[in-house]
Amino acid sequence: MADRKRKKGFWRGARKRRRMCLDIGMKGVLVTCNKNEKACIREAYNLLNEYADEMYGPEIAASDSESESEDGDVEAALAKEVAQMKDKAGKDKRRFQAMDSGANNVVFIQSQLESPDKLVHHILDDINTSKKFKTRNVLRMIPVMSACKAYLENVKKSAEEMFPKFFSGEDNPSYAIVFKTRNSGTMKRDEVIKALAGVVSEVNPACKVNLSSPDLAIVIEVIRTVCCMSVLKDYFHLKKYNIHSIVEGTKDDPKPREVKDQGPPKGDLEAANGSEVKEGNGDGKVQESKVEAFDKDGNSGIKDDGVSAEDNGVTGQGSKVIEPEAGGQTIKEGEATK
């Protein structure tokens, strides 16, 4: 069968798909979902646009800013349209744009906002206050403040540009480093943590590490050949930016288990009352013995005559064992006593 030549539009579509993915220099939000990416993208759009309109006002399209007089001029309108097609300004001016992240169940929403971390923190803080679910498929929302190549030199350089904004003040905030990698093996966790901790020490040596409740969390998300970095506040307070954990409040905040007082063990109670106790002698037979309690120096306890509590089955510090008299009956295990 002769090979048929592919149409020109096929390769154009392939190039277009390659461009719509997470790349270096981008800012936005990493959104994790539960196997339904289409529904996740729709919910992420609705949630981000709702709070972005509240914080920054509604998004204004390029066509809304044009006046009627400019539309009347045909030549000017055509020239402007050609310029937009060349620069692809219509797509670049969108506030949020879904991108392929390169990992399953992870969607990257590119944003034109200067600080996407403020928007995401506002969303999660409001959900933490209301305790109401606003999404079904969106699980976590991790802001991406910087994206660079997944090499240690590039990550360190990006950290040197970003960290002075957060660690150079007089507050001396504590910090923790959270590292996660997907579909990549170019970066090692220990090397990245050591390098980033060194950058923080250079910026402000007074900043200390706090792994339980840090003021700031340095979050590193490596996906294939791209390293996403962000410095987030209230990271553990907001359940690692997990919406479901924020509303439910049970994943990271387990309630202490209540232990009821059931009193002393049964063996101790019988020993204290002088009742008969049956114990095994190690060869499958059960002998009958009597445990006597005593009172010494005003403290009740169990008398110890060299026989341990493990030998006679009584839970206590020890016991006095009285051997059965001569002619005593040996009872086999499983038989009823008379």
What Rg do the Cα atoms give? Answer: 35 Å
Shape: globular
Mean pLDDT level: 76
Helix content: 25-40%
Query: Low-confidence stretches at least 5 residues in length (pLDDT < 50)?
Result: 62-72, 251-259, 269-328, 330-338
Query: How is the biggest beta sheet arranged?
Result: 4 strands, antiparallel
Listing every helix as H and every strand as E from the N terminus to the C terminus, the arrangement reads: HEHHHHEEHEEHHEHEEHHEEEEHE
Using DSSP, what is the number of strands? Answer: 13
Structural class: alpha+beta
Distance between the termini: 96 Å
Q: How many alpha or pi helices?
A: 12
Please describe the structure with a list of short key phrases separated by commas or semicolons.
4-stranded antiparallel sheet, 35% helix, single chain, alpha+beta, 338 residues
Structure commentary:
The protein is α+β, with helices and mostly antiparallel strands and 338 residues long. 35% of the residues lie in helices and 22% in strands. The protein contains twelve helices and 13 strands. The protein has helices at residues 8-19, 37-56, 68-72, 74-87, 89-92, 116-130, 152-162, 164-167, 189-203, 243-248, 266-272, 309-312, and strands at 28-33, 96-100, 106-111, 138-144, 146-149, 175-182, 216-223, 226-233, 276-280, 285-290, 293-296, 299-302, 331-332. The strands form four sheets. A four-stranded antiparallel β-sheet has the order 2-3-1-4. A hairpin with a 2-residue loop joins strand 7 (216-223) and strand 8. The model is unreliable at 62-72, 251-259, 269-328 and 330-338 (pLDDT under 50).
